[in-house]
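ESCALATION

Customer reports they have been waiting on this structure for their group meeting. Please prioritize. Original submission:
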Amino acid sequence: MPPPVNDLIISLIVPALAIALNPMPIIAVVALLSTDHGKRNAFAFLASLVAVMLTVGILTIFVLATKSSQSSATTTQAAAQTLAGLFFLSIVVLQWRAKPSDTDKPPGWMRLIDKAGLSAAIIMAVVLMNYALLTSGAGKIRTAGVGTSQQAEALAFFILLSVSTVIVPLVLYLVRPVWAREQLGRFQAWLTRHNRVIVMIVFGLLGALFTAQGVANLLH
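Update from on-call: job pushed to the front of the queue and completed.
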């Protein structure tokens, strides 16, 4: 690879790993694997994540090339991100005020995922994507000064690394299905026992991150 391409690939590692290490998509794919038609739903989730990243990446790199278009898109994205962050924080408040459940039944959100199945997989892929990190990585590709084919290769690398932690549970499920089902059962029981705390921590972190990034982009 030419030096500019090497530098571009290296610069994409940090934002891609930051997306990959977000716990929510990992929890989501494991929860989807526990549903009826789990393999189908998990693959739909992965495909939707890739489609979202591919769409935003292509728009950022190849379509929204003018400064005015970029500014308008950034403002809209920042506003949407701020609203999403406030919504996540409201979920934390509701969970904090709610009475802890003594039942061993799966929490409502897990039952909803199990019932919605394929549609839940697609919606979660859209909602759980960190668009600030995604557009940051795509912006690096757009301004790298490399050719179109190199930009496409860099985008493919960025997407693959970003969804790698979602691919791993799927591969384990395909390669070792019996072992994977046992682990999924244990994970589901753990989620049921600690649901309230998990929801508060995860949505609190997501809400704080989305709100901070959205407000920062609006003020930028």
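Sent to customer with the following note: The chain has one domain: 3-219.
Escalation resolved.
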